[in-house]
Specification:
It is an enzyme of class 1 (oxidoreductase). The protein has helices spanning about 20-30, 45, 55-60, 70-85, 105-110, 150-165, 180-200; strands at about 5-10, 35-40, 90-95, 120, 125-130, 135-140, 170-175. It has about 200 residues and is an alpha/beta fold.
Amino acid sequence: MTTRALILTSSILGENGQSIALAEHFLKCAAEREDLKVSHRDLVADDLPHLTQPELASWQVPAEERSAEQGELAGRSDALIHELLDHDVVVLAVPMYNLGVPSQLKAWFDRVMRSGKTFQYTEKGPQGLIEGKRAVILAARGGQYAGTPMDSQTLHLKSMLGLIGIRDVDVVFAEGLAKGESHREASLKEARQAIDSLVYKL
């Protein structure tokens, strides 16, 4: 049985980004498994615009009644949701920008977190509609934040994933990358080893 993984990168530094390096290591490990197929979406190259009211409104119009413009706007979200549903694992390679996620990744979440499609509101609160999937977060940070109140990024990512029903989440941290070469190399080595183990288990 083949497992399909979707890896999303969002570093504005391109090949110089440490989260990109983690994503590339994941891809290298995955290539050694015939039963693991990986797709890659570069959210910086995609250059998704910020979500606007016209795009949000287009989701509320039945597909057969949309204008050409509404069809194009709604198509962004439809395509990204379809891609997500078509994979078993979503891998988020995420740098930390000002204690948060890149706006490019937030633009992706804004389109896959869609009421009536990937979650719904109930009397007991929101309910995720995506089942049986898992996520891996590859987090690259210049400082040390994991396990501290300043790590709002991890909670934010887990909360967004959880809202749509993805609660099986593994996190690999590469931290302190701005604290000198020896610390950076040790942290990246530890992260690569964690990725090796995760890929083996997928």
